[in-house]
Amino acid sequence: MTNPFTARSFTPADLADAARVAVAAATAVAPTLREHFGATDFSTKQDERDWVTRWDVWAEERIRDTLANSAWGDIGQRGEEGGEQSGSERRDVYWTIDPIDGTSHFVRGNEFCTTMLALVDHGVPVVGVIHDFIRGHTYTATAGQGAYLNHTRRLSVSRRPLPTAQLELYTDEQAAPGRQLRALVEQSGACLLRTSASGFTFVGVARGAIEGFVTFRDPHCSEWDIAPGCLLVHEAGGVVRNIGSDRFHSRNLDYIAANPAVYAAVDAILDNLGLRSGPDAREP
Question: Which residues contact 13 (CB under 8 A, 6 or more apart)?
Answer without folding.
Answer: none
